[in-house]
Amino acid sequence: MSDVFQEVEEEYRQQQMAKFWQKYRVPVIGAAAALVLGVAGYQGWSYWRGQEIEKSSREMEAVGDLLRNAGGEKQATERLAKLGASGAGGYTTLAKLQQAALVAQSGDIKAAVKLYEAVANSERSPIFRDFAIVRAGVFLAEVEPYDNVKKTLGPVASGSGPWAIQAKELLAYAAWRAAKVDEAKALYADIEKNATAPAGVKRRSVEMQALIRSGLKFSDVKPAPTPLLLPQPGTESGPLLLQPPGPPAEQPNSLLGPDPIAPAQPPVAPTPTPQ
Question: How many angstroms separate the CA atoms of 166 and 171, rounded?
């Protein structure tokens, strides 16, 4: 008797499945096809994306080769502009920053500032955004009124990002340049007390406080021939440029005399004279 009931139940299920399939077969087939096409499309896009990133990487290497050759800066700048507009991945931002650095190096400061500001306004990553702001601030601190410099660098200087110390040092310099002595001393003092500030930055802060207390004004200082170029966080390296490594540069002397942080150099023995 139980077998009869099972057969009836099985036949009923089959009829229900047949009705369901008859009613919904088109949407089910369409959904399955869409899933297959979606997976295939994603795989194709991933492959294409990888190829574009690899292409951008090779282009950046080619730019580096141009910069290793004398007179290749102009062509490198042009190729960086194209890469920044049509590159893939993080190479677009890197290309724009490199382009801005080369433009600044050529002497067109206004154009360089515009390029840095364009990166700052479009970049989502706070690291690259703040980096571009600080790079622009390097030049703005020399030509813009203090209030404009503060408006640009203030949010970065008051934050906790990796460029906060560099932004605060630039802001302190701009305040001293604008004869806002109290504000400059307060900013330099904050840098001196900051445990994360690089040793070189702390040294400059101590020196600047001493010079300001002595009554030194910006007008008393002979202007530097080239604008300040910020180092990377925690280092004393030069501008962001694709250049081959060269011999280590000599450490600049302290503003107050020999650098107390740098280790003393051992004396060099005289070369013996042949008898």
Answer: 9
The domain spans of the chain are 1-49
The three-state secondary structure class of 18 is helix
In the chain, what's the furthest Cα-to-Cα distance?
Answer: 125
Label residues 183-200 b or e (16+ Cβ within 10 Å = b). bbbebbebbbeeeebbeb
In this predicted model, what pLDDT tens digit does every residue of 138-162 receive, in sequence order?
Answer: 999 988 999 999 999 999 999 888 9
pLDDT in tens, 32-84: 777 777 777 877 877 777 877 888 888 888 888 888 888 888 888 888 888 88
Cα(186)–Cα(237) distance, rounded to whole angstroms?
27
Residue 254's φ and ψ, nearest 5 degrees, are: -70, 150
Helix (H, G, I), strand (E, B) or coil at 257: strand
Q: How far apart are CA 177 and CA 221, in angstroms?
A: 10
Tell me which residue of 158, 173, 168 sits closest to 192, measured CA to CA: 168
C-alpha–C-alpha distance, residues 191 and 204, integer Å: 10
| 38-42 long-range contacts, CB within 8 A, separation 24+ | none
Can you say whether residue 223 is alpha, beta or left, with left for phi > 0 and alpha for psi between -120 and 50 degrees?
beta
